[in-house]
Model the fold of this input.
Amino acid sequence: MNSASTLQFNPHLANLPVYQPGRPIEEVARELGLPAADIIKMASNENPFGPSPLALAAMEKALRQTHLYPDGNAFYLKNRLAAKLGVTTANLILGNGSNEVLEFVGHALLNPGDEVVVSQYCFAVYPIVTHLFGGTLVTVPAKNYGHDLPAMRRAITPRTRVVFVANPNNPTGTLAARDEVMALIESVPADVLLVMDEAYIEFREAPTDLLPLVRTGRHPNLLLTRTFSKIYGLAGFRIGYGIGHPDAISAFEKIRQPFNTNLLAQTGALAALDDTEHVERTRANNAAGLKFFEDHFRRLGLEFIPSAANFILVKVGRGQAVFEAMQRAGVIVRPMGGYQLPEWVRISIGTPAENQRCWAALERAIGGDALKR
Ligand SMILES: *Cc1c(COP(=O)(O)O)cnc(C)c1O
Done:
C-alpha cells in the first residue's frame, strides 16, 4: 500500500486547476466497447480534414532524420513565418503548442501575489498558468458571453503583470470589436503584458490585424500567440508561436528548453504554412458548418452564441447528461461545466457528414430531456 507523501509540495499547487481535455476517441471506444472507427470527436476544435497533405508528405520524408536533434532555433520555420507575417525572426518564439508560449509568460513575468486579468469564460490555460506561478487571478464578468475589454482595463492595478485576451475567444467563440481591442492596446500600462491569443484568427475572413503594431516596435508590452493546432490540423505535433517585441522574445528564449519543438512538428508546420488550399478548404467548410448548426439550433429554438471560430456553444439544458448521451451514440462533444456553463455543450465543426451525425445525436439527446422540461 502507498504511504502518504511528506514532500513539501509548493503550496500554490493545492488549488491549481487541472486541465480537462476533450475525450480521446480511443478512450471512449474502450469505455463503451465500440470500435474506434465508429466514434467521431468534435470536442477539441481540431481540423476535421486532418493535417495538411503537404505537411504529411514533408513529415514522412523527415521521419528518416529523427535520430538527429531538431534545430532548436527552427531556422527555416522562423524565417518562413517572418516573411509571411512581415516581421523579423527576432519577433518570433516557437512553443510546444502555443500553450507553452503562455507558460513562458508566467515564467518570465509572474511571482506569487502578482495579478493576472482575464475574462469570465476564458480559455482554461490562463488560470492554470496564473496559479502555477502563485499569481492571483482577477476575473472580469463577461458581457454577452464575450470579453468586456473596457472593464478588463479598469481591473488593472499596480500589481497586474499580465492580461490575457483570446480573440476569437474559446470556449464562447465571441469576437471583440476592433475599436475596443485597439483602445485596450493603447491604454494598457507599459509594465503590463497584454497577450492577444489568436489561436482562431485564421478562421476569420478579415481579422483585426495587430501585426502592424508589432512591426513598429512601439508596443513592447504586446504579445500575439498563434498555433498550428487548429486550422493547420497539426494539434498532435504540438507547435505554436508567439509574436512580440524582441525584448520580450529574448526573455522568453532564456526560458525555452533547447529542443522544445520537435523535428516533425517544425517540418510539418513549415509545409502547412504554404498549404493555402487546405487552409481555404477548411475555412469554407467551417463557415458552412457553423451555418448548418445555427440553422438547426434556430429551428429547434435552442439558444446559441454566434461564433467567430471553429466551434459553437449551444444551450442544451443538462450539458453533462447531453454530452454523455451523445457519447453513447459515438459523438464526442465538450461539456462546459468546468467553464461554469453547465447548461451548454461546445461542438467543434466537423465535415458535413460529421455535422449531420452530430446534429442527429444532439436532437435525440435533448428530445427526451431538456426540451421537455
Ligand atoms: C486551442 C487553443 C490554443 C492552442 O493551443 P496549442 O497549445 O497551440 O495546441 C491556444 N489558445 C486558445 C484560446 C485555444 O483555444
